[in-house]
Design goal:
CATH class: Alpha Beta
Largest sheet: 6 strands, mixed
Order of helices and strands: EEHEEHEE
Number of strands: 6
Number of domains: 1
Shape: elongated
Number of helices: 2
CATH architecture: 2-Layer Sandwich
Strand content: 25-35%
Distance between the termini: 25 Å
Strand order of the largest sheet: 4-3-1-2-5-6
Oligomer: single chain
Length: about 150
């Protein structure tokens, strides 16, 4: 059977700031992220299975990514926990937070997202690649073959 790659696109908004950074991204700002998640596998070959002919149901991939990444992070402020020591989160503008143990760069978010998706994929599938656009012209990407 042939290996097929299946890709789903996701769009979400995140505010973040880079702790101890020496440029403008040290200030809280936001991005409209575009993410492409690609899995690889063989299409199911079972006439009795409602998913016959699919590598993965796009809806199943959407559920995994939405639960693990999009819903917790969309319209949240994402900060390195080192940056939160003296912040007052009682203000309604900080109601939705996503505090991480890393510098929330596009590159580090890709690593975090890859780990979350891989843990939740069905065992017969592999994550092939993940591409995260932070802006229309800037992105980071991960490929399984490189790791």
């Amino acid at each position: 059977m042939a290996k097929i790659r299946v890709t789903k696109e996701f769009n979400f908004e995140i505010a973040h700031a880079l702790w101890n950074y020496d440029g403008p991204c040290a200030n809280i700002h936001g991005h409209s992220y575009r993410m492409f998640v690609t899995v690889i596998g063989e299409p199911l070959n079972d006439d009795k299975d409602p998913k016959n002919g699919m590598v993965i149901d796009f809806g199943d991939l959407k559920k995994i990514v939405n639960e693990q990444i999009v819903h917790p992070m969309d319209h949240a402020i994402t900060l390195n926990k080192k940056a939160t020591e003296n912040l007052d989160f009682s203000n309604q503008m900080f109601k939705k937070q996503y505090i991480v143990d890393y510098q929330p760069t596009c590159e580090n978010m890709v690593i975090d997202f890859v780990e979350k998706i891989q843990k939740n994929l069905p065992p017969h599938l592999k994550l092939y690649s993940l591409k995260l656009h932070e802006t229309a012209t800037s992105f980071a990407e991960w490929y399984a073959e490189d790791n």
